[in-house]
Design goal:
With about 200 residues, this protein is an alpha/beta fold. It has a single domain, classed as Undecaprenyl pyrophosphate synthetase (3-Layer(aba) Sandwich). It is built from 7 helices and 7 strands; from the N terminus they run H-E-H-H-E-H-E-E-E-H-H-E-E-H. A 7-stranded mixed β-sheet has the order 4-3-5-2-1-6-7. Helix 1 runs parallel beside helix 7. The longest helix is centred in the middle third of the chain and has 14 residues. The protein is globular, with a radius of gyration of 17 Å. The chain starts with a helix and ends in a 7-residue tail after the last helix. The mean pLDDT is about 85. It holds the Pfam family Prenyltransf. Its EC number is 2.5.1.31. It is an enzyme of class 2 (transferase).
Length: about 200
């Protein structure tokens, strides 16, 4: 009951929402609570968030194979782009949801540089815009939410340079809507400078 009241109060105080959110979770997080991914998507949809991304940190994406059917159910309420190993699949309609399993920001940047070189681009013409056009993930989150006590990964290392970071003191398996709303309230209270 008290959480319901707190949730209503937090909702009433929200006026400025991020357009794009990225949740960074671990392999163990998704194994412990794979259903929370769909739950978080529902919360974002209800609030009118433009798009949401989930990065699942793992050294071996194959260990998460058993979670894929549950992750794919997101396509019933949103447009899901799933990056798994070297594969990418798109299904569903609606709000944009991206799930990236085991992807690395350093690998993405190295791949960009490699493809630029393979395309024979003149080094003098390489600038931020050109590099960004070669990125796999053209997603610049306004807010990055990291659950639990694990460290932040290098995922979206280029794209998240001006993102606001929020470290939840709650593990993914215990995530409640009030925790998510607390992150949004914190985002709303920040003065974004975009590196200036």
């Amino acid at each position: 009951m008290i959480y319901r009241l707190y949730e209503r109060r937090l909702l009433a105080d929200l006026h400025t929402l991020p357009e794009q959110i990225c949740f960074m979770i671990t392999e163990q997080d998704i194994l412990d609570a794979p259903g929370n991914l769909s739950l978080a998507v529902q919360w974002c949809r209800e609030l009118g968030i433009g798009s949401v991304m989930f990065h699942i940190s793992t050294d071996d994406p194959a260990r998460l194979e058993r979670c894929l059917p549950l992750i794919r159910t997101v396509a019933s309420i949103a447009r899901l782009t799933l990056h798994y190993g070297d594969e990418s699949e798109v299904s569903g309609e609606g709000m944009e949801v991206t799930v990236a399993i085991g992807k690395s920001g350093r690998e993405e940047i190295a791949d960009c540089v490699r493809r630029i070189a393979e395309d024979g681009v003149d080094p003098a013409s390489v600038d931020e815009g050109l590099l960004e056009s070669y990125l796999t993930f053209k997603y610049e989150p306004d807010l990055v939410i990291k659950t639990g006590g694990d460290h932040l990964t290098d995922f979206l290392i280029w794209q998240s340079v001006y993102s606001e970071l929020f470290f939840l003191d709650v593990n993914w398996a215990l995530l409640r809507k009030v925790d998510f709303l607390r992150a949004l309230r914190d985002f709303q209270s920040r003065a974004r400078r975009f590196g200036k």
